[in-house]
Every structure is written in structure tokens, then in C-alpha cells.
Write a structure and sequence with these properties.
It contains 22 helices and seven strands. It is an alpha/beta fold.
Length: 504
Amino acid sequence: MVHSRPRLFLIWGLLILFFALLSFDGNTHWDGTNYLYKSAFSNFDLDDNWIHYSGGFYSGRIFHILVLRSLFLISGVGIGPLIFVQLVMAVFIVGAGWLFSRTLKEMGCRRPIPDFGLVAFLFLPLSLYLGYKSLAETTAVLFTALSLYLFFAGIRKPATTGNVFLVLSTISLFLASNARVECLLGFAAVTLPYLCFQTGQRISTFRGLVLVGAVWLVLTAALGFSTGIWSLEFMLRRSEVYGAKFAADSLDYLPNPVVAILFGGGLWVFVLLSLAGLRRREVKIAWTGLIISMVPIALLADHTELRYYNPAVFSFALATALGLRASYGWLNRKLSRLSAGLVTTALFCAMVAGNQLFRPLQEVGTRGLSLVRLINRVKKSYPDPLVLTAHPHSTYSFLRICYPEMRIALDRDFEGLAPIKAREPEELAGLGKPWIYLSSRGPKERPLLTKILHRLRGREPVSVEGRPVIVTSWLSSPAPFSLELVDGEGGYLVFEIEAAVGRQ
């Protein structure tokens, strides 16, 4: 008994270590790279166009941007500071999992459900994807988890103390909704089923929800009318702003039902096993929450990515935990207690490992490890190179953050935030040599599942890598410049740019 607590700390330490290893892939999503760039280099001014850019894209995520901005104010910019920010994002996911397990205890779930819930939460495909990602979903999941914990703690406490917890819960939910507004769906997916199926606390739960809703509306209205920042703005205007673009690009995304399956992957087996205890209150709460949090997104979104289902992480983790208990209970009746535990653990690990096979299907903006190794070689080969690229929301933003000391140029305006631009031959000629162009390779077909989906849609899958993509049109023409391929790694290619007249 004396060793139980150290053993418990060791187990949780190993779980967190496994999460840290499995979730790291060295990649960034293009939205995440964009948030990092805005946070690191933009002057925060409510009158700036970028805050309300593109139908409220940034204003709807303003709290997340402020979190990243605070981290950069502490660390500065560079590769080291970027690693620091990414580690904080991984800690956010671990913290959200711990808060969720505490929430399950406050909801009255008995052991081992809170422990199983933490394990399930950490190793969901979405949690592993969000680890180290500076996406707004990461911040939203953490503060939604905090809001849920404070809510359930509040409704179980005496009125005065409980109201303080509920107000704090609302503030946390308000902050989360200003990172990703759909977190309101995640909050509702846990609290509304609890209201329906937890008969002993319906009155206190209902009162708590009324208080949270009223305070959230007051805070949202106060922020909106005073600053013009509305968390719902982008969602309400999404179709208007992006409709035509998404209609054209829809074939590049997996069908919504496929993404919903990939959201849980093999862990859906445990979710389905939880139905064996359908009469239990926790199972009804979990499944009702899954319907509330997943069905609207799958039906209403023109396309989905794995991260869009972030409101479902809590209900899915609870259902998985219940399935783990059901599996262990059935095996325990057939085998010894130790054997049942080992088999259940092996099944869970096998499903997590299987889920990792589908990781290449997830969205990637910048392959950071490949790009850093490539640029480091460029720095060794060329003194003070000017690196020109054509991808503002991914490659350019990433390089500016990692290499603030380098001359990184963009071939277009980037919302007024690109200090070095080379938009035509004359502008490039006015910048000191050596000139380097960073490009990407041509399209390469993604794994087998994507090939199958493309064929079902009548598209011919691309089976081989295409030619280098030179997006900057005036560089791809024969004159006045020539490009010589000098290096490459991953999906990136490096060209040395020379003036054609200089070679004659």
C-alpha cells in the first residue's frame, strides 16, 4: 500500500511519455503556422484589417492568438521558441485529459472510468494529432475541459461557492469559444445529456446551465459591441466567404463519413462495446453526447477534417472508457484478473497503433523537420542567402518564425506583414545575392485509401511524383533568370537563382 502512489505516478508518467512520443510528427497545419505568424509579428490593434480578415477568420480565434502572442513575448522567435510553444500545446492536451478525468469524478463516475477516460482521451487520433500543434482547437479543448470541470464541481457545491465556480466555468467557456466557437457544442454534448439522465441533480444542473448561458451571452455581447469581435462571425459567414472556393476544392477532402470514422479509428470498437451497458446512465450520457457533437458537423459541413470533430472528444473518450470496462469485465469472467487486464491493454494498444497507420491522411501544412534540415544545409552552403518562396500561409510563415535572422522573401503581399517582397524581376534584382528559391515537388498520390476514393469519384490517381512546382510565374519563364536545382528533402526543393545575362 505504501508503494501504491509512487506506482501510480510511474504509470501516469509512462502514459504521458507515450503520448509525447506518439503525438510528435514534426509537422504543422497551415492554420497553425498562420496563427503563429500573426502572433509573432503582428501589432495587436483592434482596428487592424487582419483581425476581421476574411469574414472574421482571426477575430473568431482571437483568444488563441493572444495565448500564442503571450508565449512569444516570453520566448522571442526562433527554432527554440517555436519548440517551446509546441511543447506548451502538448501540455495543453495532457492538461485537458487530466481535467476531463476529474470531471468524470465530479459527474459521479466510479473507478476505473475516470482513469480509463484519461487514457482514452490521450490516445484518441485527434488528441495525438493536436499534440504539439498550435491550432486553435488545442486551446479550445483545454479551456472547454476546464469549463466542464468547474461546472460539475459548481453544481455539487453549496449555492454561494457553487455560483463562483459556475461563473468561472462561464469565463473559461467564453475564452474557449473565442478560440473555436464550436466548443459550445462540446460543452453541450456533456452537460445536456447529464441533465437528461442524472435524475438526482436535474434542478441544480438546469440552474447551472441557465447561469452559464446568461453570463456567456453577456460576456459575448460586451466583447462584440465594444470591439467588433464576435466569436460566431466566421461560422455564420463561412459559406458566404468560402463557398465557391470549397466547392472547387471539395474533391481534395475525404468524405465526411470517412473522416468521422477516422476520428476514432479502431477505438470505435470499444465505443460500440459500451452499448452492452446501454441501460447505464453513463452510457446514455456518452452516446447522446456523441450524437449531439458529431452528427451536426457531419451533416452540415461542406467538408470535414479530423480537427472539426473536436467537440466530440469528451463524449468519445467517455464511451471508449465504458467500452474498456465492458471488455475487461467480460474477459475477467472468462480469464484471471491479470490476464483480462493484459488482453484488454493489448487490444487497446493494437488499436492505437493501427490508428497511427492512417496518420498520413491527416492535414499537413508544413513538414517542419524536413524544412529545418534543408534550410540549415542552405545556410552552410551560402553566405547570407535570400530565400524566396511563394507560400505565405505555410512555408514563408514557418521560416520567418524559425529563422528571424535570415532574409526570407515572399513573392506577394501578405496582409502587409511581409517586410521583404520580390514580386517582379526588378525587386529581386535590388536584393543582394545569393538568391535561393524554395519550392515544393509536384502532386504525389496519398496512401491507398485516397487512391480508392479518387477512383470512386472518377478521378485518375497520380501515381508518380510530378515536376517541381515553381509558383512564381516570372521565375518559371526562360528569362531573365535561370534556376538550378541544388538540394531537396521531403516535399521541398531548393534552387539557386541566377540572372540569365550574368551567365552569358
